[in-house]
Known about the structure:
- By secondary structure, this protein is an all-alpha fold.
- It contains 5 helices and no strands.
- It is globular, with a radius of gyration of 20 Å.
Amino acid sequence: MGSAFPAELRPARKPRTRPPRDVLAVVAAGGTIGSLLRYGAYLTWPGPLSTLLVNVLGCVAIGVLMFVITDLVTAHRLVRPFLGVGVLGGFTTFSTYVADAVHLVLDGRPALALVYLAGTVLACLLAVAAGLLAARSVARAFGRGNR
Length: 147
């Protein structure tokens, strides 16, 4: 069966390209490191509080990292995949955050689950902004800021 859209309105298909192997390797290595750090946090503070702390701290770090590698330094092309996607992506855990909320509902605390879901998203968005603003303030205090 043909498409309901004329050919000129259909997006052109681009051939799929695979990321370079070095990018995959640094993402995997960084993800391993981040996941181990998160596991250590969970062993220290088990439960939803650990997930919340990890996600907020990771988001602060993402804000700092993005400022540093976009406004402060010219970073190697593997820095963002290693630190941003790998380490911080492995460290933060929004899948566990959802699982924690499900467990709260199953434990008979649906209101707390909703507060946890909304509060985590809000806290993480604010944490990214706080990390960005803090890094910018520190850079300005040391006479750096825009390349």
